Amino acid sequence: MTNYYADSLSANSKLTQISANRCFDGEQHYYSHDSTATKTSMTFSIYLPDEALAGHRCPAVLYLSGLTCNADNVTHKAHVQKKCSELGMIFIAPDTSPRSNAEVDVANDERYFVGQGASYYVDATCAPWSERFNMQSYIVDELYDLLRAEFAITSIGIMGHSMGGHGALLLGFKFPSKFVSVSALSPVCAASESAWGQAAFSEYFGDNKVKWQESDAAHTIEAVGQQYASILVDQGAADEFLADGQLQTPKLQQACEKAGQPLTLRYQAGHDHSYYFIQTVIHDHIEHHWRMAQLS
Amino acid sequence: MTNYYADSLSANSKLTQISANRCFDGEQHYYSHDSTATKTSMTFSIYLPDEALAGHRCPAVLYLSGLTCNADNVTHKAHVQKKCSELGMIFIAPDTSPRSNAEVDVANDERYFVGQGASYYVDATCAPWSERFNMQSYIVDELYDLLRAEFAITSIGIMGHSMGGHGALLLGFKFPSKFVSVSALSPVCAASESAWGQAAFSEYFGDNKVKWQESDAAHTIEAVGQQYASILVDQGAADEFLADGQLQTPKLQQACEKAGQPLTLRYQAGHDHSYYFIQTVIHDHIEHHWRMAQLS
């Protein structure tokens, strides 16, 4: 296996390479590292086009996955590598929560929306979650700095699917100085008004309603106002979670209107919540982030 | 979920629909059916572009998967749907063997190359395999006829990966009247000269060396001579199974030379045996089958 990049990690790199596979004109890598924010080992995948492997700086986009996922789902099923290879774009998929912490492993088939695989990308304030469920700090500070230190990156955009779409909208508008672009696929738009989000926030924040508001994407957009030239959101029109109120898409539209934040919101006929939908529209999202990076 | 096609299965259809998901301008479907050839329930996936969903006949390609796979691997990881949607191509992925037959479930982590997930797409002649491991008859007769009866198909090509690449070359040249095109990704080219293939053929055919020869792809091509205007084979140059002799790629080249069968054989620098390689080249294969279908 040709592996251009492993040798060029920094001398005291905190990263351990798990795998490297040639894919189009680039390589799909996996890394693990010990995280300070989550006090455990974290894994992420990164697609590096040949330009980045050769040390030329490229724009990057962080993809936050949805409930129950880890880095594998989007890396295997979303079909991003071809477009990233063509554009010269770096694509990074972190995990959705800390893993292997028995004290917080309350997730199961019935409660897949709390705990492992369901961090909502916030810093929890209530025990037992507050010890390790600090995914906001992990993404926005620790992983962000690590990526900039270890890879040839010009700028970073943020996107996500479902719970990860909420994370991308939330973190993109809480930390606009860190990200050059925001987009979302089938996002939970207002976690504090979704049954999934309410279950999670009750665990992570208890009754602290200020925290609930500060961690709600639509509320945050309305509170901080316009931050990006435009944001792109795709939503399957036949998505069962749109129908049952988990996603609250109109709340995003209202928040953007009040904030003066230009929003391209596309309802795609016949499409559901699955990776079959994601692969259908994600190339447009990668191009959106690539264009925004050129303007930044 | 919009599901155009389920209602238009034939009145006495033998198919049971498992799922339907919108994907690009078409739908990804899964079906199961009771098989006469394998005396058990079989599952396959089929991508149907909108033209086919509307009843207009389209060219189709059968994809035979490699060792340990089922219909999911290629359906989730090979990224064929976009290209098939663009061209108006039907893509069908059968399983790699019968399942759930305790008497033949000898496969395990050490012997993943025999039994479930490892049929080699032959009709076994030795017990206990001969009862249900009749995957040649399943693919070439039963599934073939079922697909033509139930879906809007003009012609069928055949392709595959690894063990499934062997199956595509073998069945394509044994039954050239059934298929309009052949291609393979990282194929086992001569199963009777590969340690994997020898282990499987010993189980399925015992000492019957005539059966070994008749079931070897390179031998079959040499025996039957040119059948197609050209065949396309892609091989990762950094594939560990090429290096260790499982694939026997030069044997395919020699057989095609002797047979006068035009062969486009491409060694792709840096690429391994994984689905990261498959996704890199499979669009070219779909285009190959589409072009051959136009000429047929």
From TrEMBL, chains A, B:
Which keywords does this Swiss-Prot/TrEMBL entry list?
Answer: Hydrolase, Serine esterase
Write down the chemical reaction(s) this protein catalyses.
S-formylglutathione + H2O = formate + glutathione + H(+)
- Residues forming coiled coils: none
Q: Quick one: a GO cellular component term?
A: cytosol
Keyword Nuclease in the entry? The reply is no
User: What processes does the entry annotate via GO biological process terms?
Assistant: formaldehyde catabolic process
Query: In the record, what terms sit under GO molecular function?
Result: carboxylic ester hydrolase activity; S-formylglutathione hydrolase activity
Q: What is its EC number?
A: 3.1.2.12
The entry's active site is S162 (charge relay system), D239 (charge relay system), H273 (charge relay system)
Q: Which Pfam families match?
A: Esterase
* Uppermost EC category: hydrolase
Q: Which PANTHER family match?
A: S-FORMYLGLUTATHIONE HYDROLASE (PTHR10061)
Family membership noted in the UniProt record:
Belongs to the esterase D family.
Its job = Serine hydrolase involved in the detoxification of formaldehyde.
**Protein's name in the database:** S-formylglutathione hydrolase
Please give the organism: Psychrobacter urativorans
